[in-house]
Amino acid sequence: MWSGVIVAALLFVGSVFIPSAFRMLLIVLLLASTVDGQVQHVSGHMNNGSCTCEVNTNMWLFPAVKYESTLQKVESCEDSLKLLQDQVDRSHQRLPEIHAVLNNITARLEPYQYLNYRGLYSTLHLRPLAEDLSKLEDDINTMSTQLNNDETERLSKEVSKLRRDVDKMDMANSINMKTMKEKLRKLKNSAVSCLSIPKDFKGKQRYCLKGLITNISQPVTTKVSPYGKNIISGSWGRQTQRDSEALNTAFWIQPLVHSHYSGNTLRVYQSYEDFMASANHQDFILAPSSTHPNAIEGPSAVLYGEALYYHCYGSADVCRYDLNSKAVARVTLPGITQAFINKFPYCYIDCRARSDVDVEVDETGLWALYATAGSHGNIVVSRLSWDNEAETLNVTQTWETRLFKRAATNAFMVCGVLYATRFLDDHREEVFYAFDTATGKEDNTLALPLDKITDGVASLSFNPIDRRLYMFNNGYLLAYQTHFF
Questions:
Q1: What three-state secondary structure class fits 149?
Q2: Distance CA 344, CA 112 (A)
Q3: Which residues on neighbouring strands pair with residue 321, listed in sequence order?
Q4: Rounded to an integer, what is the distance from CA 75 to the centroid of its chain?
Q5: Residues in CB range of 417: below 8 A, 6 or more apart
Q6: What are residue 71's DSSP bridge partners?
């Protein structure tokens, strides 16, 4: 009973002097201070008509030490809670930023997800490897009987060693398959180079003897497309074949007017002056519509002599349109076993729609640059040849590089060497990679700057006549001078 009275009294006093939180703490301490929560019993006696008793108040002495200890714990807990609350608040503030970063990474990785579900990096099997090796052995044996020189002897020794390694692999899986695949790729490229490149082709252009490009000038030509800046994709340049008399000084432009990825028209100017003045041109209609099988798909066209070469619409073919006869010839690129539209375009940051096949020209002739599932998305270089007598377009040789095509914004050929560019910023590109078809060697240490007006590069082609690069830059037409020393 006395405990209840004393507690009530302390509550009353506490309501005046101490906060409610400490009041509750005090109640707990007081209750805990009694022995087992028992009420104290005392005996009283009558004294002059009044009942008196002695009460031991020591059991209700305020536990100051315990109170201080508990108070410190409460304050420490409050500090920890505040710290945790601050961390939670900061996390809530950063969550939108973290979500934005994750969404950006997801969006950038999305174009490459096909690597997981299209099987581009599926397990390599021994049987296809052995079949490729057998075909290579036959090719090298045939080549040895035709040439019989030191290079063919070296290749024969290398392929024999490779055969022994494959035979060992058949008995024990002790050799890394991917390493063997890379060796086979290099050997195939060496064999193709030995057969395909004429011994004197570098002598045809003296600057080829000086090696790789060492410098690229500022734009020497800057012009808005005659079709306006709304047409952001297409190709343009100077006619590229030296012995073409009729169109020796002709300039041309090919716009992609259908959704920026296909077209069916070609405009030709007889001179540079006419081109700059947008006067005295002749238009050619290559197909009935921009989606006809003979129409142009992607910014890939080149005017070589009196014919336009380009990627045929909706196919894995390269087309040749004869400006005189209006006839169209075509050839299917090797290694493409299924539809690959927009599967391996030029990308880096923003993909250029339908740029899967890129037709190029250099001193040695025509080339097609593309990628396949068999090459794991790396650029494949195929050499094209027009047979004038048979009037057929053929693929004569093919090389495989180690450059992932989606990692480049564009590419071009010079002296049998593939050069690739990548995005630096909205006003600069960089030539960063080279692959030499004559030797099979590559160089990924280049850093040649290439200025531009806007971010997008639709096409970039080399002209062996004036040694200039021609760029279609989102409606702007730019030309650069290349230097080899």
A1: coil
A2: 10
A3: 308, 328
A4: 55
A5: 212, 434, 435, 436, 437, 438
A6: none
Smallest CA-to-CA distance from 239 within 268, 217, 211 is with: 268
Residue type, 207: Y
For 396-412, letters b (16+ CB in 10 Å) and e give: ebbbbbebbbbbbbbbb
Pick from 341, 347, 382: nearest CA to 365: 382
- The SS3 call for residue 291 is coil
Three-state secondary structure call for residue 296? strand
The amino acid occupying position 426 is D
Kind plus residue range of the DSSP H or E element containing 285: strand 281-285
pTM to 2 decimal places: 0.69
Reduced to 3 states (helix: H, G, I; strand: E, B; else coil), residue 21 is helix
The enclosing H or E element of 252 equals strand 251-255
What is the full per-residue pLDDT of the chain (485 aa) written as tens digits? 444 444 444 444 444 444 555 545 544 554 454 444 456 677 777 877 788 777 666 666 667 778 788 888 888 888 888 888 888 888 888 888 888 888 888 877 776 665 555 545 444 566 777 888 888 888 888 888 877 888 888 888 888 888 888 777 766 554 566 677 778 888 888 887 776 555 554 445 666 877 899 999 999 999 999 999 999 999 999 999 988 777 888 999 999 999 999 999 999 999 999 999 999 999 999 999 999 999 999 998 999 999 999 999 999 999 999 999 999 999 999 988 666 788 899 997 788 999 999 999 999 899 999 999 889 899 999 999 999 999 999 999 999 999 999 999 999 999 999 999 999 999 999 999 999 998 888 999 999 999 999 999 999 999 999 999 999 999 999 999 999 97
| Tokens matching residue 100 | 């934005």
Among all chains, which residue has been given the structure tokens 């703490």? 25
Contact indicator for 153, 144 with CB cutoff of 8 Å = yes
Q: Which of 197, 165, 201, 200 is nearest to 182 (CA)?
A: 165
Of the candidates 227, 221, 261, the residue with the CA atom closest to the CA atom of residue 451? 221
